[in-house]
């Protein structure tokens, strides 16, 4: 949806083809933290995209609110890291990235979040980190696209085949009929490898299941919420929403395309949440769901032209950071597609070099459409 918006803003006609409803897969299923969970543990290509994208979310969500009336609830209230065992590495990263990060003691932690579990001696504090309510961000993006004259949405349209003519992709056969386009962009998340595999391109993007849970919490004394900032400990996180709800995530499961929630994950998530915020033991579990992350080697997405097939492009493989990277990753592709200078070096994301290195098979102007 961000790609369609940027192309339409540049004066192009765009058709967006979606098997379900726009924004209902991984973008909806995640937590909405606008940063990699432990940003100092990521490679430079991911960090570069994340830093550029993170700087844009305040303006992006404000623009969508004005255009649609839908508040994506961008909140820049910071993140508390608990039980971090590589703090030196974290501070080295913060210095390079010019990000504020400080070591804090127990008194600081409990001033910020008084109902966290007792006995926390220290932590790390990143005051500028933000989060967004991702389902509402998806709603706002979709609503905005519906108002743009150059954009057509085909929802409930499964792609059955990509159309090829003399080494060039010309469109797709869908459950709603054939749709043509001068340029085709595959941004189908965990399913991108399946789509490209149908024409002999072995894109190494696979699904990694993640399960999450949402608690409804009561009002607290003094008008506070039970949790007001993102808290991360032992790889699990709690994310507060503006209405007081608290989200806990997430699991990492290699189960192909199985999106069914499980009781084992429900119990594990609940235990993790209560270990961080004991009062959640008395709170209602409002929802439990699962989604599929699109995992690529080294967590680095494929962004650019698909080698050997004219007119075909891909933006996929963002793993746990699809929403985190989206504003920058989509602009990087759109800038390349339209021949504009890019803000960051596109080389680390190029499918041509990366697919050749892995021995993968490779097989005008006009309307662009997105799968």
UniProtKB/TrEMBL annotation:
Pathway: Cofactor biosynthesis; thiamine diphosphate biosynthesis. It is an enzyme of class 1 (oxidoreductase). Pfam families: DAO (PF01266). InterPro entries: FAD-dep_OxRdtase, FAD/NAD-bd_sf, Gly_oxidase_ThiO. Residues 362-371 have a biased composition (Acidic residues). Its EC number is 1.4.3.19. Gene3D superfamilies: D-Amino Acid Oxidase, subunit A, domain 2, FAD/NAD(P)-binding domain. This is Glycine oxidase. It comes from Halomonas chromatireducens.
């Amino acid at each position: 949806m961000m790609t369609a918006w940027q192309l339409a803003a540049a004066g192009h006609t765009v058709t967006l083809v979606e098997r379900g409803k726009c924004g209902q897969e991984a973008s909806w299923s995640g937590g909405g933290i606008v940063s990699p969970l432990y940003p100092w543990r990521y490679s430079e290509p991911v960090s570069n995209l994340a830093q550029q994208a993170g700087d844009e979310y305040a303006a992006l969500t404000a623009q969508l609110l004005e255009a649609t009336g839908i508040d994506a609830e961008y909140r820049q209230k910071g993140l508390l890291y608990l039980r971090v065992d590589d703090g030196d590495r974290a501070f080295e990263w913060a210095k390079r990235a010019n990000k504020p990060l400080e070591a804090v003691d127990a008194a600081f932690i409990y001033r910020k979040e008084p109902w966290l579990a007792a006995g926390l001696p220290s932590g790390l504090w990143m005051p500028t980190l933000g989060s967004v309510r991702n389902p509402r961000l998806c709603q706002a993006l979709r609503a905005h696209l519906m108002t743009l004259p150059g954009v057509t949405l085909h929802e409930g349209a499964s792609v059955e085949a990509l159309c090829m003519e003399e080494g060039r992709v010309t469109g797709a056969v869908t459950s709603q009929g054939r749709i043509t386009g001068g340029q085709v962009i595959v941004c189908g998340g965990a399913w991108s490898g399946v789509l490209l595999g149908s024409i002999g391109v072995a894109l190494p993007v696979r699904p990694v299941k993640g399960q999450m849970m949402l608690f409804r919490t009561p009002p607290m004394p003094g008008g506070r919420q039970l949790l007001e900032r993102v808290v991360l400990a032992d790889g699990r996180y709690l994310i507060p929403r503006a209405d007081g709800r608290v989200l806990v995530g997430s699991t990492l499961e290699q189960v192909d395309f199985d999106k069914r929630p499980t009781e084992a994950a429900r119990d594990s998530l609940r235990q993790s949440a209560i270990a961080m915020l004991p009062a959640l033991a008395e709170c209602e579990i409002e929802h439990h769901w699962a989604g599929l992350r699109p995992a690529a080697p080294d967590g680095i997405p494929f962004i650019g032209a698909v080698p050997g097939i004219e007119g075909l492009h891909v933006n996929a493989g963002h793993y746990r950071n699809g929403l985190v990277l989206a504003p920058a990753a989509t602009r990087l592709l759109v800038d390349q597609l339209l021949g504009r200078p890019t803000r960051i070096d596109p080389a680390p994301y190029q499918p041509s070099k990366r697919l050749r290195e892995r021995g993968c098979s490779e097989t005008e102007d006009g309307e662009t459409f997105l799968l």
